Amino acid sequence: MFNFNYIIVDKSSRQTAIIDPAWNEGHIIRTFDELGVKPDLILLTHSHIDHVNLVPQLVERFHSRVYMSAQEIDFYHFHSHNLFPLYDLEEIQLGETRMTCLLTPGHTVGSLCFLLSDSLFTGDTIFTEGCGICTQTGGSPEQMFESIQRIKKLVPPHVHVYPGHTYGKAPGQSIDYLLLNNIYFQFNKKEQFVQFRMRKNQPKLFFT
């Protein structure tokens, strides 16, 4: 499965975080070396294997601190060395870079988005083209609706969205763009959202 991993480097301190590290360890290590940094923090949007695959290797090599929502840890019994729970609206400081944790259940019980001043890292909650599936253990289309409504309310329209996967559009589209082009941002009634998200025989499960 193709995933996006994101590296955040605080310019003043050079402290570094990586979001949802998975699959290509060699490429990630080379990128750290090229940047002259190491991952002080590992930020996890949720516990699915394609988002946490490289956590043990990075923790062993760099002694990184690992962060995931308390709800996700408790429900799915996620384990890692150096693991710390996060709570809704908790702030993490990476040097001078402040990140706010937004609890956005729907894809999983404890999915998190990480909000910076002009970036939102969404994991599998929302994609540029759609939103995450709600059929796996702990998934809920009702909660997904509420999470998207919350993002619409709390995240400024200029903020750029960086999802865990893309299905045609490059990462980094703005909330403004999603409001116009992501069909799941168009629903204002939960019942209609749920019926559409859970309809049968979807040819493009993640984004139409």
What does the radius of gyration come to?
A: 16 Å
CATH class: Alpha Beta
Largest sheet: 6 strands, mixed
CATH second-level architecture: 4-Layer Sandwich
What fraction, in percent, of the residue positions are helical? 25-40%
Question: What topology emerges from the helices and strands here?
Answer:
Layout: E1 6-9, E2 16-19, H1 25-35, E3 41-43, H2 49-52, H3 55-62, E4 65-69, H4 70-76, E5 83-86, E6 91-94, E7 97-103, E8 112-115, E9 119-123, H5 141-154, E10 160-163, E11 173-174, H6 175-181, H7 190-197
Parallel strand pairs: 2-3, 3-4, 4-5, 9-10
Antiparallel strand pairs: 1-2, 6-7, 7-8, 8-9, 10-11
Helix pairs in contact: 5-7
Q: What would a concise description of this structure say?
A:
The protein is an alpha/beta fold and 208 residues long. It has seven helices and eleven strands.
What can you tell me about this protein's structure?
The protein has 208 residues and is of the alpha/beta class. The protein has a single domain (6-197), classed as Metallo-beta-lactamase, Chain A (4-Layer Sandwich), CATH 3.60.15. 28% of the residues lie in helices and 22% in strands. The chain is built from seven helices and eleven strands. The chain has helices at 25-35, 49-52, 55-62, 70-76, 141-154, 175-181, 190-197, and strands at 6-9, 16-19, 41-43, 65-69, 83-86, 91-94, 97-103, 112-115, 119-123, 160-163, 173-174. The chain has a six-stranded mixed β-sheet with strand order 6-7-8-9-10-11. α5 (141-154) packs across α7 (190-197).
